[in-house]
Amino acid sequence: MAFNFSVFRVRALSAVVFAVIMIGGLLWNNWSFFALFAIISIGCLFEYQKLLALISPSYQNISVIHKWGLLVLCFVMMMCLAPNNLMIKELTVKFIGIKLLPIVIGGIVAGELINYKKGFVLQNWAISFLGLVYIPMSLSMFYQLKGVMSNTLFGDLGFAIPVILIVSIWINDTMAYLVGSIIGRTPLSSISPNKTWEGTIAGVILSVLIVTKVLGVWIPVQEKLIFLISLVASIAGNFGDLFESKLKRMAGVKDSGRMMPGHGGFLDRFDSILLATPFVWVLIQILF
Predict the structure, then answer these.
(1) Domains identified in the chain, total number
(2) What is the number of other CB atoms lying within 10 angstroms of the CB of residue 88?
(3) Could you tell me the pTM of the whole model?
C-alpha cells in the first residue's frame, strides 16, 4: 500500500483531537474516566449490532426492546463493574447498577416474549451475549487497571497502566501504517490486505521502544513493567484489529461507522483496545 500524505494528514489530525479527549477523560477525575469508557462501550456495541445484523439476517428481527435494551444493559454493566469510589449521594454507582441489572434483563426478555411470533432464535441471544463479553466486560477492566497503582510511594499513579496501554496501541497503529505504507511488501492476512508483515513487526518494535524509553522518563514505573505492558498491548492489539476486520469483511462494509474522519467508527478506533485490555489485565494479575 503506497503512502498517501492526504490520508495520513486526515488520520493524524483526527488522532490528535481524539488523543486530547482520551487523555483528558483519563486524567481529569474518576467520573470523567467512567463516562469516557461508558460512552465508548455503548458506541462500540451499537456498531457491533449493525455489523452482526448484516452478517446474520435473523439478528435484524430482534425486537426494538432487545436492540435498545442491550445498549441500556451495556451501560448498567459498566455501572456494575465501576470502581467503588464513584458515589451518587450515599450510594455507589456499582450498587445502583447491581440493583438495575435484573430489571433491565427482565425488560429485554419481556420484549422478546412480546415478539414471540417471530420465533425464539438462540443464535440472536448468543450474538448479544458475546457482544456484552467482547465490549463492556472488556472495557470495564480499565477500571481495575486504574486501581492497581492508585496508592504508591510516588502518590496516585492509577492513570499509569491505562495510559501505557492506550499510548502503546496508538504508536503501534501509527508506526505500522507508516512503515507498511513505505516498505511493506508481504501481506499479513487476507482478512486485512492493506496490512503487511513489515509494518506489523515494525509497529510492535517501535511502539515498545518509544513507550518504554519516553514514558519511562515521565512515569515513575519500572521500565520492565512498561516494556511488558507495551509488548502485550501491541501484539494483542493487532489480533483485535484483525478480528474486527474479519467482522467487517463478513458484513461487506469498509468501516463500522463514521465517528472520526480517516478512522471510521467506534469499533474501528477501539478494536485493538478491546482485545489488548483483557490480555494486559491478565498480565497484571500475574505480576501483582
Answers:
(1) 1
(2) 9
(3) 0.88
